[in-house]
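seq as requested:
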Amino acid sequence: MTAAAWKKRLASIKGKAVIGLTGPIASGKSLALDYFRKEGAFCVSADAVSAQVLTSPACYNRILRKFGSDKILTNGLLDKKRLAAEVFSSPAKRKWLEALLHPEILRLTYSLITKSRKKIVVVEAPLLFEAGLESCFMLTVCLTAPGKTLEARALKRGWTRREYRARAGAQFTPARKCAAADLALDNSGKPAELGARVRSICGFIKQIAREHERSTAGRKKL
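struct tokens:
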């Protein structure tokens, strides 16, 4: 199936509140996902799913043929950092890789969500809007922080300034991401402050779900 077909399947999931979580590089997406998990949500990381897809035989072999094993292998293993450097040096190569990976990433994400029994699902997708995934979710949430804060966090993680700016330049700007989201979530302060905001979101969704269940039960009695 194509990526477009899998998007429609994701959008058609019933009985679950499926939230899309995104944000610029170093905005704290993984931390926010952990807080959602602590609140009882079923959480999916698109990056983790992507890593699984990258090592699947079909994708792995096609990537080697496209880029050359000498450029992207280290000690016989796929070096994601070297692959990223190769991909982000060329928009055409990045587009080719995304076309290969996205259908499989969406397929696995759909499978994970539908197998879960939890009613709240959060999918962390760094390229949510860039990939046109907004229609797949009931609610989209974008993390935000000042530009200087984002860059300082990225450098602290070991990125060079050049690497960070190249990767950030391949995405929508933070302002564009936030403008496209249903909800912007500030993460410029302490982790506990982000945790409190996540709890508030989950509480709101749970309240809506309870009200919906009561309303449905009332209609059935009639």
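The chain has eleven helices and seven strands.
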